[in-house]
Structure formats: structure tokens, C-alpha cells
Design a protein that fits this description.
The complex is a heterodimer of chains A (307) and B (357). Chain A has 307 residues and is mostly helical. Helix content of chain A is 72%, strand content 1%. Chain A has one domain: ABC transporter involved in vitamin B12 uptake, BtuC (Orthogonal Bundle). Chain B starts with a helix and ends in a 5-residue tail after the last strand. Classes of the chains: A mainly alpha (307), B alpha/beta (357).
């Protein structure tokens, strides 16, 4: 493969990984507070549709992004009410919301299929965009990609260096101790699930407003599930989770570009790798002992009831 | 007292029963199973347009559709469900429904099943498809005329013979008008993933393609092409809305007339299991309207070649045809049988990329 194509592959990896990164980082926040949200796929779709519809009607992509964030948040709050206040099984609630999100967007989105809309276009970062090699890979994308960049260190900082972040981690590790220390576990969990919904909505909006400028049913094509897996893959750390997301995007971008470059690659094997990693990660994470070793929040997916 | 009410209710039920029976005799229930969502604006969307045409043309036919049914066990379940609930004709609209359709057809010999793009039949299971490769060839003519850099990118979904054949037909058309043209195929390995299809288009644009054609289920490759200043050729449905400037033409399906004809035959009692492969003259596969960039002489050429196809003066895969490694696959003067076409698993001369094994 020509060397000149490598930056293009990496740039494509960044693009393909961005929606997953958004959704995975949001899911990370929710899981860190102790709530497992499997409804990410439904929330991404809700965000994608809401973002597309509002952007198309108003002609303003950023207004669409706002709408996507709100839509994702609303759906995630349903999950929050069900699992935090009503203590329903988190896995079931999440799955139900995924299916619901897919169905409801398919239904409401019918009018918008085949409707064109303007979305985000590439805006190079002044100065940085002109750097050799690094420039095209990281700094010649649309605005939402840069937002995702900001999210990673931002989340790391808030989670590990601030008091609210400490509260989140405490609620996920030992809600009883946190409660005894005066942390409002319920409120913290609600907020974190909402943040997860916002981020998933943003991820969806990226798909319908930046990556493509289209709404089609089920356009996330399973990326929400990959996002959930990436949280585990990244062992609940923002940097590693984001890395996983971009790696996954990279594999997708890679297999296409290797084909375009005429390289004989066993595409089926290559395509399998992210799913293989995901399955391995999920299997490992479902064993309690491994989970604890990996650093999963100890109280993940267990509702907290104050005794 | 209760006894009398009970008897009265039962009598009322019996009175409505003849009404039910009459209703069943008048309206024929027809089922459709789609592999994707109707909202894919692609393959399943086209089939659903056909279903709606059927309902409009024959108003006493009642149709049911189930969308986004995965190939495999789910398909079997859905087909069984439709057969059990009084549907007398069921259309299974995806290649991967083949074995499920065969199994369910064996269990319900009174129900007529039609499997799109397959090749296994029974006395009550027929197969149907359209010679989309003819329409695809015509779009290739346009693409070949419009490319300046002689590199056309082709986004293809899953490497089955049908897809390969349609891609080959496209390349045949492009190379007929421009023998130096290369058609580079990239496989997304999915029928439907708009974002990945867009990325596939990007990967082809990055290596210098100035026309992007697609055979996948969404119009995103055409949209992506326009964003980067390249022409686009769509598939399944008219992609013009997504690329108003640079869309050249799309190869589109028109299933409606086939569905109407089939139901009419079923009603008349003349339906027989067959392998229906309707040619371009029936309109089952055709072209969308041309985009603004296509010049008049190209439109004239396309029309002329289409008439040649309709009049059987020529067909897309009449020899000589070499494969991409230079080996002669169809001899000069040979007119390959449908079997050869249905089993095509090699790319023709002038195509880049491989058929993954």
C-alpha cells in the first residue's frame, strides 16, 4: 500500500470512530455511576433522527445537534426512571429502549427518508490543519469530531480531578458508603445517565449530519452496541475507551482502503477482529473476578436502595 | 337466564361467520417479507413500492408486510406465521431467505411462495428476479462517457453471483464507450450500512475515482461523491435527490407490474412454479431520469442501446468476454445461458479489486 494512503486511512479511522467515541464516552459516565445502559443504540438513532429533522427544518446544523442531545437525553431519562427509581432490571430496560428507539425512529422518520439536508462540512483547524501528516489525520474534519476530541480529556479531568467526578465514581463503587458520606447517589446516577443519553444523541447526530447528510432507518447499524463494548474494552477509562472506538473505526476504514489499494487482504477475517475483541472483552467482563480486576465499577448494574 | 344470553351470543357469532367466510373468499391475502427496513430507500423500499402498486391496481387484495427480517431462523418463523394466518401468496424478497422459503413451502403446499433472486424451487415455490444487469449496463455507458480520469469506483455489498453479475454488466457498459476505463470494486460486506458505504466511496475517491457507482442499499455513496465533486450512479432507487448536481442516473427496480401479473395468474388458476427472470422490456428494471450533467448525445446512446436490448439484437454478456486475469470466459459469438449468468463469480476484464473468497 502506498505510504501516502496511510494518513488517509487514519483520517478515515478518526471519522468512523467518532460516533462510537461519543456514545462510548457517555456510556462510560453512566456505568461509572453504577448504571448499565444498553439502550445506547436506540438513543443514537433517536439523536440521529431528531438532529436530522431539526437541522433540516431550521437549516442550522448546530440547532440540530442540540435537538439530538435533548432527544437522546429524554430517552435515557426513561431508562433512569425505570432503573434508578423503580429499580427495574437494567439489562432488560436498556434492551427494551434500544428496540423502542429503533422502532419509533423508523416510524416517525418515514417522512424524512429521501429528504436532503445540509449538515456539517469539513473545517480545518487553522494552523494545526496545515501540519504535515498530523494535520490531515486529526485536524481536517468537521466540528463534531473536534468536539469529541475535547470530550476525552474533559471527561478524564472531571472524573478523576474534581469532586463531582469523585461522587460519580463513589456512586459506582460503593453507593452505600457514598450515601453515608453525603453523596446524593440517586441524583448523581440520574445525571450520569442523562449525560450518557446526551452523548449517544450526539453520536447519532454525527452520523446523520456529518458523516452522511441523510436519515435512513436503522442507520446506526449496530454502532451503539459497539460503543457499549468499547467501554469494557477500555476498562472504564476515557482514554482507552476512546482509543477502542477509533481502533474500531480504523478496522472498518482499513478494510475498505486496503481493497481500494488493491491489497489482497482477507477482508472477512479483518472485519471480524473488532467483534472478536468485543466478545472476548464481554466474556471477561461478565465474570465477576475478572471484572473486579479490570476495574469495573463494583456496583455496576445493581440498583441502590437506601436501607 | 345466563343460558339464554349464552345461546343468543353463540347464535350471533354463527351469524357473523358466513360474513367472515365471504370476506375470505373475496379478498386475497398476500404477504411480503423484507430483509431491510422499508425506509432504506433502496432494495426493500423498491419492493414495498411494488406492494403498494399491487394494492392500488387490485384493490381487493389485502397485503401484509414484515420488514427488517434477518435471513435464517427468523425468516422461517415469519414465513410460517404468514402462511398460518391465511396468506395465500407470500413473496420472500431476499436471496438469504432461500432455504427458509423451501422449508416452509414444504410444510404449506396450499400456499404459493415466491422467492426473489433465489434458485431453489418446488411445485408451490417459484423464483423471480429481473434482468437488472441490463439496466446496470446502461448506467455503465453513462459512467464511461462521463469519467475524465478513466477510473470509476464501485461500492458493492456482498459478493454473491447476482451482485458480481450486475457489477460486471456496469463495467461492460463503461468499457464499451471507453476501453481504457477501469472499474474498481470495493466490498462493504453488508447489504445496508449507510455510513460504511459512504466511507467506501471515500476510499475510492481517495485513489482518484471521479465517478462513484453503487450497488448497496443506500444512496450515501452518491451523496458522498457529490460532496467531493465526483459524479454518482445510484441503484435500487433514484439517488437524484441526494446529489442534485452530480447524479448521473440510477438503475431502479419496478416490481409492481410483476406482482400484479403474478396475483392475476394465481387468481385465474394459471400460476405455475417457474424461474421468472423478466427482461428490461417488461420494465421490471430500468433507469431513473438523468441528472443535469448528462449531455444529450449520451442520452441518445443509452436509448439506442436499450432498444437493441429490447429487440434482442444484443445482450450484455454476449462474447467475447475475458475475466480480469485475461482468461477468455465467454467465447466470441457465444450467447451464455442463464446458468452461466447465475453462477458468475469472476470479474470481467478492466475491473480492479477481487472477489473475496
Amino acid at each position: 500500500m502506498e505510504l501516502t494512503l496511510i494518513p488517509l486511512v487514519l483520517a478515515a479511522a478518526v471519522r468512523a470512530g467518532t460516533p462510537i467515541a461519543f456514545a462510548a464516552l457517555g456510556e462510560l459516565v453512566a456505568e461509572r455511576s453504577g448504571v448499565l445502559n444498553l439502550g445506547v443504540e436506540g438513543m443514537m438513532l433517536t439523536g440521529a433522527l431528531a438532529g436530522f429533522v431539526v437541522a433540516q427544518q431550521t437549516g442550522q446544523p448546530w440547532v440540530g445537534v442540540l435537538a439530538a442531545a435533548v432527544a437522546g437525553m429524554v430517552l435515557s431519562l426513561v431508562h433512569a426512571v425505570l432503573t434508578i427509581s423503580l429499580q427495574a432490571n437494567q439489562v432488560v430496560s436498556g434492551l427494551a429502549l434500544s428496540i423502542f428507539g429503533s422502532g419509533v425512529t423508523g416510524f416517525w422518520g418515514k417522512r424524512f427518508i429521501g429528504v436532503p439536508a445540509d449538515g456539517f462540512t469539513t473545517t480545518a483547524v487553522t494552523g494545526l490543519g496545515g501540519l504535515p501528516i498530523i494535520g490531515p489525520i486529526f485536524f481536517q474534519h468537521d466540528a463534531l469530531v473536534y468536539l469529541a476530541y475535547a470530550l476525552i480529556p474533559g471527561l478524564w479531568y472531571i472524573l478523576y480531578r474534581t469532586y463531582p467526578g469523585l461522587q460519580v465514581r463513589a456512586a459506582g463503587e460503593s453507593p452505600a458508603s457514598a450515601d453515608a458520606m453525603g453523596v446524593e447517589v440517586t441524583a448523581v446516577r440520574y445525571r450520569c445517565v442523562a449525560i450518557g443519553g446526551v452523548a449517544a444523541g450526539l453520536g447519532g447526530a454525527y452520523l446523520s449530519l456529518a458523516y452522511t447528510h441523510i436519515w435512513i432507518e436503522n442507520m446506526t447499524a449496530g454502532r451503539g452496541w459497539i460503543a457499549v463494548a468499547m467501554v469494557i474494552f477500555g476498562t472504564w477509562d476515557p482514554w482507552r475507551t476512546a482509543l477502542g472506538a477509533y481502533l474500531f473505526g480504523g478496522v472498518q476504514a482499513m478494510q475498505l482502503r486496503l481493497q481500494a489499494a488493491g491489497v489482497a487482504v482477507p477482508t472477512h477475517l479483518l472485519m471480524m477482529t473488532p467483534y472478536l475483541f468485543t466478545i472476548v472483552a464481554l466474556v471477561l467482563a461478565s465474570r465477576d473476578t475478572t471484572r473486579r480486576r479490570l476495574g469495573a465499577p463494583a456496583a455496576l448494574a445493581t440498583p441502590y436502595v437506601r436501607e | 337466564m345466563k343460558r339464554r344470553w349464552g345461546t343468543l351470543i353463540i347464535l350471533l357469532l354463527f351469524l357473523t361467520l358466513p360474513g367472515n367466510v365471504f370476506a375470505a373468499q373475496d379478498s386475497l391475502k398476500v404477504g411480503f417479507v423484507y430483509v431491510g427496513p422499508v425506509g432504506d430507500y433502496g432494495w426493500s423500499y423498491a419492493h414495498d413500492q411494488g406492494r403498494q402498486y399491487l394494492e392500488k391496481t387490485l384493490p381487493d387484495v389485502k397485503t401484509t408486510y414484515v420488514e427488517a427480517v434477518p435471513e435464517g431462523a427468523d425468516a422461517e418463523r415469519v414465513l410460517t406465521q404468514l402462511a398460518r394466518t391465511g396468506h395465500k401468496v407470500i413473496f420472500a424478497t431476499s436471496y438469504g431467505y432461500m432455504d427458509a422459503a423451501l422449508k416452509v413451502a414444504e410444510r404449506f403446499p396450499d400456499v404459493i411462495f415466491l422467492h426473489c433472486s433465489g434458485h431453489k424451487r418446488r411445485q408451490n415455490l417459484g423464483t423471480y428476479f429481473g434482468r437488472m444487469y441490463q439496466a446496470s449496463y446502461l448506467t455503465g455507458l453513462v459512467a464511461g462517457k462521463m469519467t475524465r480520469r478513466n477510473l470509476i469506483g464501485y461500492v458493492a455489498p456482498i459478493p454473491i453471483p447476482e451482485v458480481i453479475r450486475i457489477a460486471n454488466a456496469f463495467a461492460r457498459g463503461a468499457r464499451e464507450v471507453s476501453p481504457d476505463v477501469k472499474v474498481h470494486v470495493v466490498w462493504t460486506h453488508a447489504w445496508y450500512d449507510p455510513a460504511t458505504e459512504s466511507e467506501a466511496a471515500n476510499s475510492l475517491l481517495d485513489i482518484g475515482a471521479d465517478v462513484i457507482a453503487t450497488q448497496s442499499d443506500s444512496p450515501t455513496p452518491v451523496q458522498t461523491a457529490e460532496k467531493r465533486g465526483a459524479y454518482g450512479v445510484g441503484y435500487n432507487s433514484d439517488a437524484g435527490k441526494f446529489a442534485p448536481q452530480k447524479h448521473l442516473v440510477s438503475a431502479v427496480w419496478n416490481w409492481g407490474p410483476y406482482y400484479v401479473e403474478t396475483i392475476k395468474n394465481v387468481r385465474a388458476g394459471t400460476w405455475k412454479s417457474a424461474d421468472d427472470w423478466w427482461p428490461i422490456d417488461t420494465g421490471i428494471a430500468g433507469l431513473s431520469s438523468f441528472g443535469p450533467a448528462v449531455p444529450e448525445d449520451v442520452k441518445t446512446l443509452v436509448e439506442r442501446r436499450k432498444q437493441d436490448l429490447v429487440a434482442h439484437k444484443f445482450d450484455v454478456f454476449w462474447g467475447p468476454i475475458k475475466d480480469q486475469h485475461g482468461q477468455l470466459r465467454i467465447a466470441d459469438g457465444e450467447k451464455p445461458s442463464d446458468t452461466v449468468l447465475l453462477q458468475m463469480d469472476w470479474l470481467i476484464e478492466g475491473m480492479l479489486g477481487r472477489v473475496p473468497r
